[in-house]
Amino acid sequence: MQNRAAIFFILITLTLDAIGFGLIMPVMPDLLRAVTGGDLASAALWGGALVGGFAVMQFLFGPVIGNLSDRFGRRPVLLVSLAVLSADYVVLALAGSVWLIFATRLVIGAASSTYGTSMAYISDISTPKEKAQRFGLVGAAFGTGFVLGPAIGGMLAEYGVRAPFVAAAVVSGLNMLFGVLVLRESLSAEHRRPFELRRANPFGAFKHIGKLPGLGRYLTIYTVHEFGFAVYPVIWAYFTIARFGWTPGQVGLSLAFYGVGFALVQGVLIRVVIARLGRRAAMFIGFIAGFASFSTLIWLESGVLALVMIPISALSGLVMPALRAEMSDMVSSSQQGELQGALASLHAVGMIVSPFVYTWTFALFTGEDALWFLPGAVFAIPAALNVVSFVLLRNTKKRKAP
């Protein structure tokens, strides 16, 4: 029962993280225009700087927080993070300077780098057979949060541009109190290790983790897959407007549809697939589904067919829980935080680099000087990356079931 309550807390925390990210999206343009006195274009530039800065902090602090959790335990790291997040949202609700907003988002980026710690907690309390399914629940929680966040933020915006930040502060604070009551430490004292600064930075973490036998290839697969998957949040809205002429409301509904499909795949379907076929097969199915959907989107001209393709695209959600479970089984209990922190940094690298690659490619095929108007050309990149991931996994030695 304690484990169930703890898992419920972890899932609520990660859902709130995703909601908090989406919650502020509808109001950020108006807030930035209000504090800068500029137009929408200048607000967009500041918005891009906020997103980039947030990702950079996640890249830098993912391994730090992961290593801290290996040293002091998961519980204090998670609770302190929630306290800092709640305080930061209060500052955002009161901020009257764009520089204060920027600084606060940097702190939030660092404090919310506990995704890896949450995954390490789940790994601590799960048997090898349970890991993939529970990692799938994490993906479902994130999918739910990304569906709910923008919708809730839009509704709260009716009460003012600061209202979503007040709500985020209250919810984060209440969740911290819930964690104080139900969260028990999952990392026993004998499995903790000293905090080492050389391993608590992303480069040191990559170097140390990558030396473990067989793990380097899985880290490469993880990085390639994450980069390909980032095309959705970066380019989907622009693609659907350019190709299908969708309104913002239609774009939002399509993303909600995808979020629901993704949550069902990672929360329900993953259990069936892994139980019957195994983790490796689950990853292969995900790569094939990703290649099929991205290849189709390159040439697709029907918005209805794009919606029909979403359930197929959502099957790519089979990859990450199975991949994380494989890597988790390859490291010791004292390294779970370090591994998950390194994975969080790799994810952040994708979110830093992918916007430049995907938006530049999209502009190349949709701008006034484009030699060939093909908005879907950008999806050729993630389609190719799914092929690369498939080949890398196929050439990886099959591991025995733990």
Task: List key phrases describing it.
402 residues; mainly alpha; Growth Hormone, Chain: A; 17 helices; 79% helix
Estimate the global geometry from the Cα principal axes. Answer: globular
The arrangement of helices and strands along the chain is HHHHHHHHHHHHHHHHH
The residue fraction in helices comes out at over 70%
Strand content: under 5%
- The class by helix and strand makeup works out as mainly alpha
Quick check: average pLDDT?
A: 80
| Biggest beta-sheet profile | none
Low-confidence stretches: none
The CATH fourth-level homologous superfamily: MFS general substrate transporter like domains
Alpha carbon gap, first and last residue: 25 Å
- The DSSP helix count reads 17
Counting structural domains, the number is 1
From the alpha carbons, calculate the radius of gyration and give it in angstroms.
21 Å
Number of strands: 0
CATH class: Mainly Alpha
CATH topology: Growth Hormone, Chain: A
CATH-scheme architecture: Up-down Bundle
Structural write-up:
There is one protein chain. The protein is mainly α. The chain has a single domain (2-182, 199-394), classed as Growth Hormone, Chain: A, CATH 1.20.1250.20. The chain contains 17 helices and no strands. The longest helix has 33 residues, at 40-72.
